Amino acid sequence: MMKRLLHGVPLHATVLLALLLAALVVAPAFANDYLLTVLIVILYFAYTGQAWNVMMGFAGQLSLGHALYVGLGAYTTAALYVHFGIGPWIGMPMAILISVACGAIIGFLAFRFGVGGVYFAILTIAFAEFARIGFDHFSWVGGSAGFFLPVANYSHDDLMNLRGRPAMFYYVILALTAVAFLLCHALMRSRVGYFWQAIREDEEAARSLGIDTFRYKMYAILISSGMTAPAGVFFAFYYNNLFPEQTFFILRSIEIILGPIIGGVGTLFGPIIGAFLITGLAEVLQELLTWYGFDPPGAKRVFYGLCLLVVVMILPHGVWPPLSRLLRVDRETERTGDKAEP
């Protein structure tokens, strides 16, 4: 089955992917608690970046409000767990369903009435803001005071209830990221994936060829929102507290999209490479500033902006396309529809 899922990926890419996966699997045996926490954050953004990449990278629809789906997934499963004792894995389908329903509403309003481009991006921001304001006054889940999950010291890992040590959470988010990668790979080689690429490159031309652009753009937002919801489940049970001002804030959406943009929008490896670069370098910067006793507020945001500026000016298609050619695995980049640099 794995061979069928990875059909079309060059041997070099398969070997590198296997080595990366092996290194990540054994990482907890050598990493201290701090490094393990950093790796968890990296994999979290790698996962959410892949989910966002389905919308923008594959189908060409810019969403700046993906924190909405993270927040809906987080609050849904947290509320089910705290109020009814329903575990996160049982509550996850409900979280996905609610996120998909919200994505369907946004997609229908936008795509049926021809809202696209920057106006679609504004619409996604607006819905995330509506959710932030709504949950800020939703007392059943704590409102602006925050919603807290019970925390206890566990002598063993309780995978069914996502209660346990950081190593358990690490393997959970690693598994989610691996599944998302395989799903994105399968989507890009499918009929739907090729229609998405046609819509992304020229929607009018795709429509003239008989492609139902409304249907396939709806597929993109439904799959992307559904993929993002499990990240919210992980977020809620890993951090054990939720605040509307943090969960639905537009900065959370910007953090989600930075990895794919820096790594390479529309590529399979781009969101993963971007997450490692942006999060890893940001943590290194934070440690250096702390070491020298200089920790100005907003340093990470400035760093994110500088990274984005450098990539846009020097590597407009992201880090992965030139890196893939250097590693001789550029066929993977070409087949995902990413344009090669001249």
Walk me through what this model shows.
- The structure is a single chain.
- The protein is mainly α and about 350 residues long.
- The protein has one domain.
- It contains 16 helices and 2 strands.
- The chain has helices at about 1-5, 10-25, 35-60, 65-85, 90-110, 120-135, 165-190, 190-200, 205-210, 215-240, 245, 250-265, 270-290, 300-315, 320-325, 330-335; strands spanning about 145-150, 240.
- It has a two-stranded antiparallel sheet.
- Helix 3 (about 35-60) runs antiparallel to helix 10 (about 215-240), helix 4 runs parallel beside helix 6 and helix 8 (about 190-200) crosses helix 10 (about 215-240).
- The longest helix has 27 residues, at about 215-240.
- The protein is globular, with a radius of gyration of 20 Å.
- The relative contact order is 0.17.
